[in-house]
Amino acid sequence: MIGAAFATLVAITTQASAHVTVGVPTLQVIDVTYRAPVEPGPNSLEELAAHHTEKVTVSYPAGFKVEGCTETADFSCAFTVDEVTWTRRPGSTNFGLQTIKGVPVTSPFGGFSAAEFFDATVRTPGIGATYLTPALQIYNDGAEVFWNEADTAAPHPAPQLRVNGPDRAPAVATGFFRPLAELGAGTPCPQSVIDEAIELGIDPAVHCGHFGFDPPAGSPPPPPAEPGPEVRGTAQLVRSETQTLVEVLVTGLEPGVTYSAHVHEGTCTDPTSAHYRDDPAGLDAPPNELWPSDDPSDPTAGLTAEENGVATGFAVADWVARPTARAVWIHDPPADPNDPHAHARIGCADLV
């Protein structure tokens, strides 16, 4: 595993330096360092100057929350809730050549060893699992390497973080709504979506494309999906000792149209996830579920968009949501009863 560290971006903590860290606790702020190697190893300083890391972007899955990143003399950095980007500063000439007493270190993979290190501070998810944190490495000559493969023995494995410990729910969880086209973002279609398509009698490629996912392997590309509403806005879930409150502000909707919104199990990466229920065997409606509404007296009223396409909603329940309440989905109003995508999901916010 140590040898492989010279050939891949590696997530490391004070506890480990490998493709997969030893377990870090749930819902805890940790410091993570990424090692970005130069491949192939340069054979001279001139080669390194002509081919070195210019930019690194690391993405985090739902549940993580980026708290910050560290700038250096050679790299500036910027971050959002789920992504960090380091960019080489103009005039930087320190390209990560590894030396011992001024002598370049020879890499076991050929040439000299050259690598640079990037530090981020993130809060781990409240649910334990092994998470991929894909990274895009861009060289100054335009070459790109996407470290995103799940298999640690693959040519470009994604850095991984193993989160251990009891599931914990944040007292306050916030999220930002994104439309369907961004949720799939050209990623492989989940098997759950393919299975749902088969159950509904829909071409899986069409159903996957509806959510922005790539068509299943071996199937022809479907016709371009019609663009849905540009759903944006914010969501917040607050847990007190006895209650759970949800508040949403949604933009990009059609004025005068009433939409529905529900807190769901799982994250936005699973568009087939179920509504969150306090009693899993109970009714699929309030007060056993959380449905943000613009009418405080009617939790089933939905969200009616104003003239500017903005809708706001609120929901409260006399129970405390478990950690599995992880997303808020916005639904189109029911239309053609013969359309399997009627009342479809049109946007989602992960609660982190």
Structure description:
With 352 residues, this protein is mainly beta. It folds into two domains: 3-164, Sandwich (Immunoglobulin-like); 172-350, Immunoglobulin-like (Sandwich), CATH 2.60.40. 8% of the residues lie in helices and 36% in strands. The chain contains four helices and 24 strands. It has helices at residues 45-50, 180-184, 191-200, 204-210, and strands at residues 10-13, 16-17, 24-25, 29-37, 53-59, 65-69, 75-80, 83-88, 99-100, 103-104, 115-123, 129-132, 135-139, 144-147, 160-164, 172-176, 178-179, 232-239, 244-251, 258-265, 303-304, 311-317, 325-331, 345-350. It has a five-stranded antiparallel sheet with strand order 2-1-4-11-6, with no helix packed on it. It has a five-stranded antiparallel sheet with strand order 7-8-5-13-14, with no helix packed on it. A hairpin with a 4-residue loop joins strand 18 (232-239) and strand 19. Helix 3 (191-200) packs across helix 4. It starts with 9 loop residues before the first strand and ends with a strand. Mean pLDDT is 87; it is low at 1-10 and 13-18.
